[in-house]
Fold:
Amino acid sequence: MFDFEKIDKVIHEKARLGIMTLLATRASWSFQDLKAQLEMSDGNLVTHLRTLHDHGYVAVTKEIIDRPQTSYSLTTKGRGAFQEYLTILEQIIKAGRP
Amino acid sequence: MFDFEKIDKVIHEKARLGIMTLLATRASWSFQDLKAQLEMSDGNLVTHLRTLHDHGYVAVTKEIIDRPQTSYSLTTKGRGAFQEYLTILEQIIKAGRP
DNA sequence: CGCCCAACTTTGTCTTGCAAAGTAATGCTT
DNA sequence: AAGCATTACTTTGCAAGACAAAGTTGGGCG
Structure:
């Protein structure tokens, strides 16, 4: 039926799924905007972003315009992994809605 | 945008998501069939099933036909929670596929 | 210089998944 | 009856991970 082992644990975690979904909707998000949207603490958000970055899913751009302003975006790899993840979600929905 | 806090952690965990999806496709599954489909160890599977049962999501039926044969099915509550979970998945897919 | 703010890092705690091994109950086999 | 297998479950132990809170760094500005 399904291979649930295929579910990407990096993406599947609730907080990171939130990040990935937001990043998929816009080209780029600032740290502050992500934090406001997701209502996460700095430390927690940074940690999840680092996890995603370590897996090559998100790119980090550091600028200092007035204030430091770090922004995040999906890499090609990240976008691909996310689409693949969404495909599994679609299969689950198809199975779960008779 | 989305309220990611709404994601039901009981269902969202990979292994239990597998269980719930299977239970949604058929009225009832035996322990052995679940185990074979999901390729999980006894202990691990029993634990996740107990978690789902403790939350009132699955019903347990114990019979002894030839061998002990425990079977599991979704409760009304479980079905409802799963449908709600699927609704969130749909929103994520909608956002993630432009 | 001192303060604020953004973006980290560190520390610590607490939960959780998961495997491996052990156990109880039952039935089959010899 | 004795031994063995199987199912379902418990226990133990460990390792990973989430998360909060507090501390740190570095730039901009009054």
User: Anything to note?
Assistant: The interface with chain A takes residues 1-2, 4-5, 7, 9, 12, 14-15, 17-18, 20-22, 24-25, 37-39, 82-83, 86, 89-90, 92-93, 95-98 of chain B (CB under 8 Å). Helices of chain B lie at 9-12, 14-25, 31-38, 42-54, 76-96. Residues 13-15, 40-41, 43-44, 47-48, 64, 66-68 of chain B lie near DNA strand C (CB under 10 Å from a C1'). Chain B has five helices and three strands.
